[in-house]
Amino acid sequence: MMQAETVAVLTGKTAPFGPKGEPSAYRKVATAETQEIDSLGIVGDEQADPRYHGGPDKAILQYASEHYPLWQQEQPHLRAEFRDAGAFGENISSIGMDETSVCIGDRFRLGTAVVEVSQARQPCWKLGHRFGDAGMVEAVVRCARSGWYYRVLEPGSVAAGDEIELLEQPFPQWPTAKVFELLIGGGRDKSALRALSKLDPLSINWRERARRKLRNLKGRDD
After folding, report:
1. pLDDT, averaged across the chain
2. Which of 93, 127, 155, 164 fits as disulfide partner to 4, beta carbons 3.0 to 4.6 Å?
């Protein structure tokens, strides 16, 4: 039985972030207070570009705190950057669960809310900008320590120290690390991609991504 806990709850406000001052709410700050969760995530947490961040399928981003010591070992020049939760823009820092144990469609009680895993997190240029090292994007792709998103099924509240209780795991064959490798990494398994394209709990965008990748693979075989 998965035993997991919320280490920190983090929220952020939109502010200049990129090399040209692009707006972003990537930088998150931990709070000791209980935070309310509604259908779009943690109340008061912002997303600068709703086309790519936030929305019902990507309401809450979670990242495993156990990954931070690994990053310190692998990226010693960035050691200080992995000292505190929030370096990956996560809303929830957790202990006791990661991409190998968390599967698409898993339902959890997060504090008093009920949430469902919708997809892994796709790394983008903001990750490289945050660390001052564009190679971090490829590093995440290689190891699949990406974090994962939830959609909110039942609103509630969450605070640091709250238990994260697994309620249901209907698709144990689809851990988020495996799905990440198939859709973001170099995975070429056509039957797996076909199955993902029809997997209802997977976010709409990632189901379409599976269909596009499948079409591209078929085109190369022709």
Report:
1. 95
2. 164
